[in-house]
Amino acid sequence: MNGRIGVWFIGARGSVATTTVIGALAIGARAAERIGCVADLPGPDAAGAPDIPELVFGGHDVTTATLPKRAEALAQAGVVPAHLPAAVVDGLAAVDTRIRHGVLAGQGPQRSSTDRIEADLREFRSANGLEQVVVIDVSSTEPPLSAEAAAATASPEALEAALDGPVPVLPASCLYAYAAFRAGCPFVGFTPSPGPRPAAIAAAAAARRLPWAGSDGKTGETLLKSALAPMFATRALRVRSWSSVNLLGGGDGETLADPANADSKTASKAHGLAQILGHAVDGPLHIDYVPDMGDAKTAWDHISFEGFLGTRMTLQFTWAGIDSALAAPLVLDLARLVARAHEAGETGPLPALGFFFKDPADSDEHRLAAQWDALVAWCARLGSAADGTGVAP
Fold first, then answer.
1. For residue range 335-385, what is the model confidence (pLDDT) as tens digits?
2. Is 56 exposed, middle or buried (0-12, 13-18, 19+ CB in 10 A)?
3. Which domain holds residue 141?
4. Residues 6+ away with beta carbon under 8 Å from 103
5. Residues 279 and 351 in one domain
6. What CATH number corresponds to the domain at position 231?
7. Domain Myo-inositol-1-phosphate synthase GAPDH-like spans what residues (predicted)?
8. pLDDT digits (tens, 9 = 90+) for 136-164
9. Is residue 392 domain-resident?
């Protein structure tokens, strides 16, 4: 891969996107280490993905606070080191000039919104001389598809009719994914929002031979679940219940305080547990908004299980982290690997990237170690395709 790669964020001034840009700029200036970057590790590095300094950032957002100001706020909150925003302020200001005003579901004609998104993506690619552009959704979580939206995205014909309909029924994530595919851009759904997954949207990717990945980045509690749950299964220990409580602040917490939005997240977080254990498991999963926590989040899990002769035992753990700092290196990984997949001619959902997601598209595999093996094998095939010794599937 010889040219520069564009990364277009939906939610470009949010905490995850801002942290990602700060990190990429700092790595490019040799002011930060590459901690947390999976694509740099032995195994995934075989893919030959573009390097972080080759990435050029832009995006859409509905807020007006500038990236330098958002970076200052994140530093004050302890999300990024206090000295970094000043060290990369010129780069942040340059990226901020490439952020366009976003679209909101239910506002304005949806055909014109989709056309505008597509035009912004094409202009970004042309103006910056980019080889390709990967679109990544790191915006606020949307509710599950309504019945009207599901019907509107069931077929390409229904989708086209809905775009011209008098009542806007499509969620913004679907408009963005559809516009991205029309512009020839791969897509990453880092949130549990519908995005590229409905049939008509996925068909648009297939028609243009574009890859996409999703859904819902696996950064904290679910990451730990995907590592711990296989332990119980392979030791033949019977899990009776697995209860989870999540406390978080920030914009994500505020969004998830709405039960409709929280439905998408809780469904995504719970999706893999029964698949790993081989049976349904009792236990509530709560997400509670605590404004005082800011960008931090804490998860507490209580696991009840049976051992030999039915002996009852428990395991408890607490996970406390900064979600944006956990998500940012994964976003960089996904941008780089999806760009490499596009170059190699991959089409449709990329199940080998399930390692990064709570609800991986086109895959029922949720065990972290198995997902890692699949990722490494896929990256090796991409590398073989690049050097002519093999062909990527």
1. 999 999 999 999 999 999 999 999 999 999 999 999 999 999 999 999 987
2. buried
3. 5-217+325-387
4. 60, 62, 113, 116, 117, 172, 175, 176
5. no
6. 3.30.360.10
7. 220-324
8. 999 999 989 999 999 999 999 999 999 99
9. no
